[in-house]
Amino acid sequence: MELHEITLGDVTIGGPLGSSTGLMVGSIFYDNHSVVTDAFAGEFDRDRANTLIERADKAAAAHGVQMAYDVIAASPEAIQAFLPFVAERSRAPMLINASEAEVRIAGLETAADLGVLERCVFASLNMDTEDEELDALRKHRPGAVMIMANDGADPSPDGCCTFIEEFYKPMLDDIGVTAPIADLGTMDAPSVGSCMRGIAAVRERFGYPAGCAFSNCISQWTGLRELGREYINYSLGAALVACRAYGGDFLHYGVIEKSRAIAHIAGSAEVFFGFAAQELDGHKLPENHALLKMFKLANEYPS
To answer: What are the entry keywords (predicted)?
Structure first.
C-alpha cells in the first residue's frame, strides 16, 4: 500500500515512519482558554495569544519538529477573528475546528479569503456531517480533510477500517479527496493502546496519515492528578512516543501551553526514528529535521 504524504504549507506529514517528523498539534482558543475573554464574539488577549504562538513556533524550530495549531471556535464571528490572528503570526498549519457546521464553513471561507487554505485542515468529517459542509469543501478545498475514524459500535482496528471503507470512502470520493487524515478516537487512557493499533491498521490498509488526540484522556486520569501535574506530562509524553512508534502522523498533545515540553519529547523520539529511516531505509531527511537540530539545543536555549 502506498503511504500518502500530505503537504500543508511548509509541512509534510504521512509516508514512511521517520522520513518526516510527526505533526504535533496544540489547541488554542479552546473552551475556557485563559486568553479568551468572549468566546462567541471572538475577543481575546492578543498579547498573551501572540506570546503562546511565538513560543510554540520557536520550540518547533529549535527541536526540528513540525507543529500545528488547533484553532477552536464557538461561532462564525470567533473563527473569523481567530484564524487571521494565527495565520498572520505563524506559517504553521491550522486546524479549522468547531462543534457547529456553520462555524467550520465560516472557517473555510475565512481561510479562502486569507489565501491560506493550502495549510488548513478541515476538522472534521464525522457521522453528523451536513451537506452544506460538503458543498463548502467542494468550493474551498483545504490542504487536508480530517475524518473521525473511530466507530463507536466497533472501535477495534478492523472496525475502524470497515467504518472508513463503508462510510467515509463514498463521501471522500464525492468531494474529490484522495487521502484524508484519519483521527482514531480515544475514550480513556487504556484505549490509547487500541488507538495505536488502529493507526497502524489504517496506514497499512489505506496509506492515509493517521493519529489521534491522546491528550483528551490523559488529563482525565484521576490518579495522575493526585500525583501532580508533572506526572500528567510524563504520561502525555509516553502516549505521544508510543503513538508515533505505531506510525502516528497526527499527534494532538492538548493545550498550546505545553508546546515547549512536547517539542522536546517529540524531538528526542524523532532523532531515533529519523536516524533509522535515513541509515536503514535510505530516506533523505528534511533539512530542519530533529536529527540535525536536537544536538544543537544549547545554541537555541542558552543557560
So the answer is: Methyltransferase, Transferase
Compute the average pLDDT of residues 211-223. Answer: 85
pTM: 0.95
24 and 266 Cβ atoms separated by less than 8 Å: yes
Using CA atoms, how far residue 273 sits from 76, 89, 224, 268, 270, in Å, is 40, 30, 28, 9, 5
Whole-angstrom CA distances from 185 to 52, 97, 193, 230, 235 are 27, 15, 11, 24, 18
Give me 111's grid cell.
481561510
> Could you give all domains of the chain from N- to C-terminal order, each with its CATH number?
5-300 (3.20.20.20)
Tell me the three cell numbers of residue 81: 477573528
Write down the H helix ranges in the chain.
46-63, 76-89, 101-114, 131-139, 157-163, 169-175, 192-206, 215-218, 222-227, 229-245, 259-279, 290-293, 297-300
